[in-house]
Structures are given as C-alpha cells and as structure tokens.
# Entry
Amino acid sequence: MKKYFLMGIFAFLSSILAQSALAQTAEQLTDKFRQLSDEVLPTPNVYRTASGAPGHKYWQQQADYVIDVTLDDDKQRIVASAKIKYYNNSPDSLTYLWIQLDQNRFAHDSNGQKANFASTKPKADYGILRQNLYQKTYDGGYKISAVTDSGGADLKYIINDTMMRIDLASPLRPGQKMNFAIDWSYNILDAKIIRARGGKEFFKEDGNYIYEIAQWFPRMAAYSDYDGWTNKQFLGNGEFTLEFGDYDVSITVPADHIVTATGTLQNPKDVLTSTQRDRLKKAKTAKTPVMIVTTEDAATKLDKRAKTTKTWRFKANNVRDFAFASSRKFLWDAQGYYQPENGKTVMAMSFYPEEGNPIWEKYSTQAIIHTLEVYNRYSLVYPYPVAISVNGPVGGMEYPMICFNGPRPTLDKKTGKKTYSRRTKYGLISVIIHEVGHNYFPMIVNSDERQWTWMDEGLNSFLQNLAEEEWETDYPTRRAEPYQIVNYMKSTKQVPIMTNSESILQFGNNAYGKPAIALRILRESILGRELFDFAFREYSQRWKFKRPTPSDFFRTMEDASGVDLDWFWRGWFYTTEHVDISLDNVRLFNVNTKDPEIEEVFKRVKDAERGITPARLADKERQMRTDRFPELLDFYNEHDKFTVTNKQRNKYTSLLKGLKDWQKDMLTVKSNIYLMDFSNKGGLVMPIFLEVSYADGSKEEIRMNAEIWRKNAKNVTRMLVTEKTVTSVTVDPYMETADTNLDNNYFPRRIEQSRFELIKGKKRRDMMKGFATKLKSDKDDDDKKDTTDEDK
Ligand SMILES: [Zn+2]
# Structure
C-alpha cells in the first residue's frame, strides 16, 4: 500500500513536471512552417483546386456593352446610354443584379465622403483645403435617367451609394442571359483639384481641356464563387474587379478633337485625315515612333473651336473595362511592335499635349514597347491590338489597352524654356511601364483589387522593376532591392499585406513595395530564377482572363516550383514581422583526443593562459615559507595537477580497444570545429547567407535554407568543420534578405564610420531691425531665393 502510495505521488509529481515543461515549450516555440491550408487558406473545391489552378467547374460571368456617349465640351459633361447583355454562367439563379456606380463616390453624400477622415495635425497642403472647398460646389455623381429592359419597360432599381441593384421580375437562371439599358449623365470633375482616376484638365493659356474619361459608365459588379456579388463600396482606394466582355462604343466629340480609347478604331475614314491614315500605316512597321498628329497640326486648332461633332467608334473584345481620352490639344505618335511570340503587331501609341514635350515624344511609346517586350517574357503574351499611354491630369492609372500618366517638364514662364528633373524623367518612364504593365495584372489576370491591392500592384511592381533594370544600367528603381523596404519593415504602424485595400496603412510600401520585394527575394535568393520564372509564368497562364484569389497564387507558386513556401507566405504576407538575424557568437573547438598525454598538456596550457592577477604577481617576488623550510615540499609540489597517471593511460588504452577503426580515426581529426550561434530577433524566418573569411585570406560562402529554423524559430546553431582558421563571419553579405539591423551581422562586431553633425543655433528675431527693413515691390521678385533642393 505504502509502496503504491509513493509510486502514485511520484507519478503525480512527474506529470506536473512534464506539463509545466510542455507549457514552457509551447510558449517559446511556434512552428513557423506549419501549413497554411490547415488554418487560413480556403478549402479547395471544383472551382479552385488545391494546386492553385482553376477547377474543372470554374465559371465567371460575362457582360457585353454597346454604348453611345457624347462628350459635351462646353459643359464638360458626359451624356450616354448603354445596352448591356449580361450572361449568367454561374450555377446559381439570380433574382437581382448589382452594378458599380463609381462616379457616385464624388456625390455630396457618398460613403467615401462620409468616411473621409483628417489628420490630427492642424496643418495640411494647400491642395487639401482647395479640394475640400471644390467638393462642396462640384455636382458629382451619376444622374440615372432610365433603366429599362429589352422591351423598353422600366426595371425596378435601387441605388446604394456606389452600387445599384436591379430587381428582376423572374430569376435569371444558370446559362441564361438578359438585355437591359441604362441612360445617364454626369459632370466631369476637375482632376487637377481632386486626385482621381479620370477627369478634366483646363489649360488657361489656350482655353482648352484634356479629358481622361474612366469609371464613367454603369459597370456590372463582379459575381464570383468566392464572394458572391461584390458588396464592398468604393471608398477611393480598393479599385475594382469586373467581368470580361465585348465593347462597342461610339464617342461623339467636337470635330477637331483627337480621341483614343480601349480597343480598335472602327471608322478611321470618318475621323482621320488621309495624311493621318498614311502616317499610321507607316508607323505600323517603323523602327521608331512616327508622329500622326504633329505639334503644328495641333497648334492650328487651339484657338479655332469646331462647331460640329464627329463620332469615333471603337470595338474591344474580351476586356474588363473601357476608358477613353479626348482633346484638341493632343499630339499623337505611334509605332508598331511585332510580337514574335504570337506573330501579331501591337500598335503602341502615345497622346499628349505639347506641354509634355520633349520627354513624351522621346520616351512614352518606347516605354510602352519596352514593357510589352519584358512582360511578355515573364508572364503572358499581350493579347490586344493596341497599347496606349496618355498624358493628362491623372498621375497614373490603368485601364485595358489604355493608361493615363502624369509627369511633364516644367516651363519657366520668363525664359519660355522647359527643364525637367531626374525624378520627372525616370518618374515618367517608370509610371508608363507600371501602368502599361497593369494590362497583365489585373486587366488580364483579373484579380480583385476591391479586396487585395497587392495582387495586382505587388505583382505588377515586381515586373516593373525587372523592366526598369532592362531599360538602362543602374536605373534608379525605387522599390526593387531588399534594402529599400527595410525602414518600412521596421516601422511600427503597419498591417499585414493580406489586409483589405481600404484598411491598408502606408499604402505604397504595403501593397506595392513589400510584395514586389518579397517576390524579388523569392526569385533571387530562395527559389532561384529558373524555378521562380516557371511558376510565375504558370500562374499568369492559368489565370489569364480569369479571376484568381491570393490562395490561387500561393498554391500555384508552390505547385509549379515543387517547394513548400507556406512559411514564406505566412511571414511576409500574413504578419508584420521583419527580418533581423543576429550572429551572436562563433565558438572554436577541436576534437578531444581522449589521449591523456595530449589532453592534459592542453589543459595545462589553457590554465596558464588564464593569466595572473597583479596581486599574485606581486607575491611572486616574496620569499615563501617553503623557501625557508624546503622539507615542507612533497609529491604534489613535484607533479602539478595535469600530470598524467598510469590509471589514465590504462583507461585510454581500454577505450581504444572498444572503438572501431573509423571511430579511432575520428579521434585524430585535426580540423577546427566552429559552432556559430544565430538568433532571430525580427521574427521572420529566412535563409541564412554567410561569408566566412579565413586567416589565409580566402573566403567561403555558405547558404542555409530557411528550414534551418524549423525546430526552433528563435535560436539556431550551425557547425562548420574546416582545416582553416576563421577570422570573421558576415551574415547576408549581399543584403539579399531585407535584414533590418546590420550591426549584428558581423562576427566579430565592426565599428561603422559615419558623419557627426554640427548644428548652428537659431538667431533671435530682431523686431526693431525687421521693422526698419525696406518694403519690397513686385519687381523685386527676382532676388527671391530659390528654396527648392537641387535634383541629384
Ligand atoms: Zn498600379
């Protein structure tokens, strides 16, 4: 009984001990390599497979549009009517349809306005106040005048902010289609005052407008297998996702306007002169851009306003949106780009006012063609007949086949000369590459930006960087190299990449920079170019003209590369952890030979190395008692504690007898054994890359996988066996991993050289002196100080 009782107590105690040990382990170590599909990715189904491809029952809706639109140049208004054919390809019966009314964001009572918040600081740019005042007077938003069925009867509808629901008398069954029509108008906003994706720009010197018209018609909202109808209102950031379809659009404008749009011009004889048509024909096979409308052509029209109108008709197939631009100020150049991949020629074209030159005629069309060349190689072959870049009020925005790009040189009003900064030049080339690049993501690979901005901005920025790097040596890329994201990764106010578009903090870094650089790291330092490029291309091919979600991207990249990247997606896309790997220690060892004749000598040397304290040193000179009475000395004074005994020798001999030959060989290995201790201070698990320097002057690179952290994501030790002597070790010597703190990347630590700033104290205000200063007239303006920083 007693015995059992004790055993019981023991079992009880040991279970408590085991539990507390378990609790401790669980608290310290989380498996950063656990699978995403167990926790956060949606369960695969017949629409989306576990491999990341569209499933065998994948479906998506289709919407075709025939639109007549008039651009009223006097009132700067859009008046239009559309016939929409909607195809229900889903397995569901639909009792209502939802339609996007993005212009309603600019209505006075829009959700976007209601959700507008200000900075807590009592200061803002002049433009913010101007924008605020403009919004009070600008009568924005759609005026819907009719919603009718194919027979002309009114359809029941309700407008809910930037969306409209049409209620159907009978459900639209799977496989059915329906026709309906909408008439509407709206006032075009001044895109120089309100930052928008389309609008007007007024040139007071000649009294003309440039119009960039986008998100201008009621567009079918997306209905998808993962989200049903889009129910996220347009607040201003999360752009959109739409359905593919065919467009036939007739655009009526003043007769002296030049119009460019998504799609191919159907009636060039009605709207272009024979000279312009000849030039276009020549441009198709030209080696450099050809002017279709020259500076002189445009200049003659600027002060003679046409009283008549012309209608330009464009058709576009399999696009998810339609935009256009119109102005009498437009110059126009074009060059055909023959795509060897599909044997088709794409007309690359640019439209810009004279104000955009000299940089627009020099760079725009070249940048379009360059984008097609590079993106075709990495993703999919450009499928459309035209690729267009327009200069107007919009800083940078993409639509199928056409994009709007803002940068222009600066005109010195006194001298009449134009100059441009380095930032303007490269900003123009970069924004054109970026916006043309959006044709691939999300205009063709139709990801949902209302939900996930990074899916098009991040992927597109990644390819933009590759294209920029092929433009010229040392192109000043902005968010390409891992070190360029370090400050953001360290910052405290941030959210994971996998955050809805409207809630993202630090938009550019979160949705553009971080995903682009994460993919760069994946390509260059984790998968390697061959595996990455194959997988990325596979994703593009699988999802062109389809609608992928994040899991489809994550799964395809793993499925096609054969590499489990769940740890990478988890760390970079689902957390705000950063990379900071510290090399804490490098320890040197040699094999313990077990031979007492060797080991005791080693111990004696180590003991002597411990040094002698000043106090003991002083004692050395002193006469000792044993000096005076030598009879006090004995055996232990003759033999120090490292003296080898026969007992030790016998033990060694019997040890050797018990070892196999190869084990004996191991005891004689002379190599240096280094143990390198790393700690993960940032949280993000990443590969460890090392450069080891040796005493003989040679260097060695060691590359370890991220999986080195799989058992312990906080601390890990690596063994290095070498004949050589290590003098220093550097972690991430080529700065490949976005390591946020380089100080702890060196063993031994280094002293960094930098600059010590001296500051001059501010002068006190002398009111008496200021009062007596001469008052300047307007003419004295010349000696006004130029306070702008010189552009380097
Ligand atoms: Zn973009």
Summary: The pocket of zinc ion is lined by residues 434, 438, 457, 460 (CB under 6 Å). The two ends are 89 Å apart (CA to CA). The chain has three domains: 29-58+452-576, 62-451, 591-667.
